[in-house]
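task queued by scheduler; priority normal; single chain, no ligands, no partner chains; default sampling; output format set to structure tokens
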Amino acid sequence: MGLVVDLVSDLGSYSNDSVACQYCYLVLIQQRFFHAQQQDTSMACIGKWTLLMSIALVCGCSAILGQSEKRKVHIVYMGNSLANPEKATSLYQKVLAKVLSGKEEVARSMVYSYTASFSGFAAELSTTEAASISKMPGVVSVFPSSVKKLHTTRSWDFLGLSTTSNHGLPTGGSNIIIGVLDSGVWPESESFSDKYLPDPIPSRWKGTCVSGDSFSSSNCNRKLIGARMFPNGYEQNFGPIIGPGEYRSPRDAEGHGSHTASTAGGSSVKHASLFGLAEGTARGGTPTARIAAYKVCWFGSCTDADILAAFDEAVADGVDLISSSIGGSPQDYFSDSIAIGAFHAVQNGVFVSSSAGNSGPSVYTATNVAPWLTTVAASSIDRKFTSSIVLGNSLPYKGVALNTISLSNPWYPLVSGEAIRNASSPLANFSKYCYDGTMALDKVKDSIVVCYGGVGAPDATVLAAGGAGVILVDSFDKSVGFAFSLPCSVVGTADAKHILKYINSTSFPVADILPSITTVDDSLVPQTAIFSSRGPNVITPDILKPDITAPGVDILAAWSPVSSISGESTDNRSTSFNIISGTSMSCPHVTGAAAFVKSFHPEWSPAAIKSALMTTATPLDGDKRFNKDGPLGYGSGLISPTKATDPGLVYDADTTDFSLFLCGLNYTSEQVQLISGFSNFSCPEEVPSVIDLNYPSIAIANVQGSLNKSIIRTLTNVGFSGNSTYTVHIQAPKGVSVTVSPSCLHFDAPYQRLSFHANFQANSLPSEQVYLSGALTWTDGIHFVRSPVLIWPASFTVQ
């Protein structure tokens, strides 16, 4: 990214000397604090933690990254739930007793027992003890409990779910229960009011509301029907959870969990806004759905042990859907807490959606890529927030920001951070980034400062020095709005050159930064968000990821009033609604859309709902700048919830299909038996191809030389008419011959299943390191069941 290029070039002259190490230490400490405030969610922090680790290593600051060797929390995964869950904990203790000495040590080591939807436990183990357990019979995998991060309303109108229509669903959604794994919930928010929910809580609900800091069972109601917390894994890693800045309870101190929960299933709230920005009706995709909050993230960190415990409880409680806007680096599926939890949730009929991550626009960055969960990218909507900058020469420049603060005077001195460097600072060469100590404070006071984006928070530095405002230069992208702790507007490098030229052309340059305004424009067609992680799938390239995209840029939803709007501790503004961006925001949109579909079709499997969402999605305009990655960026396209209620046909899949898929990944029959719970299962002698998983998209990866590949898919008739005929329309990738047999499918009855084969041939693929895209669409003249096709050569690399 452009921000990084500028920063790294400045670091070049300091490599491996003490000044660089001082700088590394400074930004690492600064960023740790910044992340604690920002939850690593809003896009001000995208990718910066990875950047800082890289800087520290380049600078030779390895001591900063050092970790002491000691027992750490590990996950011992043992597959499907036991026939007698009551005996599970006793079994787990016996396993631990084989590597630990005495009952007391076993008791101290145990962090969680997983017994409801799958088998296993979390315990403190040394590397040697973990290795010993991994070799025991009945154990699928043992892996360290790593720390994952949170991936941080007009959007529903944009998707075709207006508040003026119930879409045939006056109260049906009230039987749907959405579980949200996140940072908790602010129960007093209007988004969680049960005022318009006359129906009683579904009798199948087995969950509860646990008490804790500033939270009791009375905080739940017929809307927020459950709230649990899972602190054990975090506390084993980081020590006791003690405020300020956090509640040891389901209460949300960060705002992220309230935001995602209200996006998925929040009640309708009129006149919601962020201090006037984006004013309108905020609501979830299924406003009558019930919500259960599972707090797994503390101070922005979410451990595998806590995530698995929440999945286990959520399935046992009776949720219908799970939304998880959390992620880490891609792992083998059964060394990944979200993949494990999702597998068993889906096995129990629970739909799971998860965020793709915020590491775009590079390819091979998508996370949460297991085929049984729905992986969600982020895209923009037809709204943006602009904050104009007016210079003393009367020339205006339109920046992007969530600027809700008005300057008290019409004009303020305008200076460049680079031009007012503090020569006595060892970090003076970094003054253009406005880092603490790099600028002459007397020049900053009561001035608007031009700063370049890098790491840290230049607005906080300028504010602390008494500055009036910031013009932030982003050399890569200015499509996402951010809130800042003082008046600020983000401009691109082209406008920055004009602004700097003006500064140098007069002896007393001045400027003003105006509050943001909301702009709705149909021409702002959806684009894949610059930050949204792209495919291919690094674990199984022949499964296209992400699956789908949904709004994730500048989303208004519920917020915790004790959480900083801008992420700065000095920002004391309080609000019940906030606007933030990330795949964290797009993920609950898909959860809400899935809940909407399930309210019409409660009998559908998670795979059928996923297929309906994917095959009715709208591909994004490939001519737009950030859509150039095609399906690698947005999967099947932008969700269309109303179309997904009547897809015509679906690509369904169950545990047997996923078991055969695991055979194709070289899992043994014994391992698959443990994972699936199918005691008599055996992998076929002819190992199935993973490409033949009955998936709604088609990916053919790592093609070398010529191409001759056949795949099989099976469609299930879910149309309202049992008697229907579908023909295939082929949009062949460039230079590839595609044949489908049969080319016509005639269904005689509802839920009838028919299969087809598709063959892809090419003498050679283009020599360029590019992918080829196309589509297969089955239609009866009313329904259009579209599957994207993506093919790329073995030479395809990170661009």
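post-processing summary
- The first strand starts at residue 72 and ends at 80.
- The longest helix spans residues 18-38.
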